[in-house]
Design brief:
Elements (H helix, E strand, L loop, with lengths): L1 E5 L6 H11 L6 E4 L10 H9 L4 E3 L3 H6 L10 H13 L2 H8 L4 E4 L2 E4 L15 H10 L4 E4 L5 E6 L5 E3 L7 E3 L5 E6 L12 E7 L4 E7 L3 H10 L4 H9 L2
Parallel strand pairs: 1-2, 2-3, 5-6, 6-10
Antiparallel strand pairs: 1-11, 4-5, 7-8, 7-10, 9-12, 11-12
């Protein structure tokens, strides 16, 4: 079975459309969305509609989704980010808000665990930046493979049989081989707002039978997405970072 696993669309319609075009012909059986459909970008309703149309979709809630759905106060957000979420809430249909509100914080399928931020205390929206935090995710996850988003940085970590955690770098083709006797933690990066200084969106293809993860970097029309943010009257900072990939 081939899985397309992606996160952090952030109302970026151009990135979402590029993703849908890219996965055509890749033999994808299941889609997993790791949260944050909205926030920062100018097309929240259109992105939610495209997400809802994906077949066999597994989706978990992100922190931006939680605020728009009324599940989180947003008190920990930056002022400009909260401004965008208020703008988003006013423009998102009740159907879309209700749909977002029904997403769980953690989901499991086929020996995998899916969460937006962490598999431990998922409601705290912590960022997995350290090996200690990764270790806590491994301990909390029931699946052998855990997929995360939230940081907007792609990352592959392996926990070997001795419980030591270490990074695993993709090859030039973006491929990382599964280690069946170990556990894996994969951050798929961000489709709609990457921050690793590469403005291309990212997602991961996982071929469970072949044991292959592939990090896909996806160019899209960043200029158009950025311009739409400014035209909507939203903070220009969020438009600039699409161009810079930060």
């Amino acid at each position: 079975m081939r899985w397309a696993i992606f996160s952090d669309v952030h109302a970026n319609l151009e990135a979402m459309e590029a993703f849908l075009e890219d996965v055509q012909g890749r033999g994808v059986d299941r889609y997993v969305f790791l949260g944050d459909a909205v926030g920062y970008g100018a097309d929240p309703e259109a992105c939610c509609r495209l997400l809802a149309e994906l077949p066999h979709l597994v989706a978990v809630m992100g922190n931006h989704d939680a605020v728009v759905a009324g599940k989180d106060s947003g008190e920990d957000f930056r002022r400009d980010a909260l401004e965008v979420l208020r703008w988003t809430r006013d423009r998102l249909s009740e159907t879309a808000r209700t749909w977002l509100s029904r997403w769980p914080l953690v989901a499991e399928a086929e020996g995998m665990t899916f969460a937006h931020a962490t598999s431990f205390r998922p409601e705290s929206w912590e960022y997995v930046y350290s090996l200690k935090q990764a270790q806590a995710c491994f301990e909390a996850s029931r699946g052998r493979v855990t997929f995360l988003g939230h940081t907007h940085w792609p990352l592959f970590l392996v926990q070997d049989p001795s419980r030591r955690v270490h990074p695993c770098m993709p090859g030039p083709d973006g491929v990382v081989r599964d280690v069946p006797e170990a556990r894996m933690l994969v951050n798929v990066g961000s489709l709609g707002q990457p921050r690793d200084r590469d403005p291309r969106g990212s997602y991961v293809l996982y071929d469970a039978e072949a044991g292959v993860f592939q990090l896909v970097r996806l160019p899209y029309d960043t200029e158009k997405a950025s311009r739409k943010i400014r035209d909507a009257g939203l903070p220009g900072f969020f438009a600039d970072r699409l161009i810079q990939g930060v």
